[in-house]
Amino acid sequence: MQLLAHSAIQLYMFPRFSRFKIIIKHVFFISAYFMLVVALARPKMGMKVQEIESKGADIVIALDVSNSMMAEDLKPNRLERAKQAISVLLDRLRGDRIGIVVFAGSARKQVPITIDYATAKMTVQAISTDDVNTQGTSLSAAIQLSLETLPEERKNSGAIILITDGEDHEGEAIELARKAKINNVFVHTIGIGTPEGVPIPLYRNGLLTGYKTDRSGQTVITKLNEQILKQIASEGGGIYVKGNNPTLALDQIKKEIERMDKEVVSMKRYEDGEDQFQWPLALALLLIVVEAFIIEKSSGMLKRMDMITNEK
Description:
Layout: H1 7-13, H2 19-40, E1 44-56, E2 58-64, H3 78-92, E3 97-103, E4 107-114, H4 117-125, H5 139-149, E5 158-164, H6 173-182, E6 185-191, E7 198-199, E8 201-204, E9 207-211, E10 221-222, H7 226-235, E11 237-242, H8 246-258, E12 263-275, H9 278-293, H10 300-311
Parallel strand pairs: 2-3, 2-5, 5-6, 6-11
Antiparallel strand pairs: 1-12, 3-4, 7-10, 8-9
Helix pairs in contact: 2-9, 3-4, 3-8, 5-6, 6-7
């Protein structure tokens, strides 16, 4: 292959590039790209506490999660329909504080009193019959824990919404509802299911394997017990609503709650700290500017030294 020019002339025609400068430019470019990715991730620092004042009532929703709530007289089943209705209610609340209790043979607090509706909604969506180990239905345990969930200083503006098929196995719920009313806590009930009754399906890996049976092998039929739910609501100063459409039922009860005396309370809400994305963004821009000013060619002194070397 013939040379186009003498090696000394080539230095003028094709100036040499500095490998060191090329590496530096690449390092700056990659670093700038990394800083941009960090900035897009919107890093935050610390925790911000916001004091919020709200005027409203304290509401505790006690949701039945016993096996009978898996009955499919409401589609897809009683429990899912109730959860959907609670989610709709949370979307419509303004200023009221909410707590969630789940119960079967015993009761368990899922969400303490809060105005963080988004977190409460996420918790509701995850509720299942596995949340309470003790099976059965204890309406008294549900009411008792709901009363304990209400803040002591807000008893005169509290309400309990009991969502269940009403198959109580304890029998103390009516007396507890009466005591709640004395303490200015009103107990509302929503009946989920049908009075005619349906069997309780059993599923494994999403497939129907049969229906629940009792010790004698007879299929268990779960029925809506409206009588006890009406008594609880009557003694508790609330209303009973049949929950064929749980969303409409909760709307009716919400109207009752809106008539209650409301109080102004302040709550602390913890939020993410201040955004820090501006710092990696500024560094990324600086690196881009510096990278643009780095010339890849060798300096004039290096070229002259190379020419002298080549002439020798």
